[in-house]
Amino acid sequence: MSDQNHAVHADHTLRVQQLFVQHQGRLRAFVLSLAPDFSAADDVLQETFLVVTRKAAEFEPGTNFFAWARQIATFKVLALARDRQRGPVRLADDVVEALAAAGPLEDDEAQHVAEIGRLRRCLEKLAPAARELVRLRYFGEHLPEQIARLRSQSVNAVNVTLSRARATLRKCLEQQAEFSHE
């Protein structure tokens, strides 16, 4: 690699690292919603930063950095779950967005703890069958067709249950956010 190419590559890597720092609060909230605890979330965030740095050349300026980094973080959380033989519930993007919309995200850990607590309380309020479908769909990453086969249900029944579960989670998060702001 020529000196000029090396300098361009180094500048691009630095810009990608700066984007990571800018989005670190949102990424941390996302990872905390998936990871089993703060320690695991910190490990995942560090590993995500290393992968983002190593793969910086793959990031195209002008595209959605958060979506790209979030995907890397998701793979890291799934790897952690496999390593620990247990895993978090992966939530649909709209549920994570509802959590984020519930209040401004700050880098303050107390705020993150409160948000994750609200989410966990809402998950616990789901009926056991709905909670299991959410687990299969968003942690196990099974498609509705696969879940239908596993549970001996119709695809339509699975989709309806998942849709209702997401709506229940959104409503619960909104209510808890309103209650916490009063």
Task: Characterise the protein shown here.
This protein is mostly helical and 182 residues long. It has 2 domains: 87 residues, RNA polymerase sigma factor, region 2, helix turn helix motif (Rna Polymerase Sigma Factor, Chain: A); 94 residues, Winged helix-like DNA-binding domain superfamily/Winged helix DNA-binding domain (Arc Repressor Mutant, subunit A), CATH 1.10.10. Helices cover 78% and strands 0% of the residues. Helix 1 packs antiparallel against helix 2, helix 5 packs across helix 8 and helix 6 crosses helix 8. About 9% of the residues have low confidence.
Question: Number of domains in the coordinates?
Answer: 2
At the first level of CATH, what is the class of the largest domain?
Mainly Alpha
Assign the CATH architecture of the largest domain: Orthogonal Bundle
> What's the helix-strand series?
HHHHHHHH
Task: Record the SSE blueprint.
Elements: H1 3-34, H2 38-54, H3 65-84, H4 93-101, H5 109-125, H6 128-139, H7 144-151, H8 155-181
Helix pairs in contact: 1-2, 1-3, 2-3, 4-8, 5-8, 6-8, 7-8
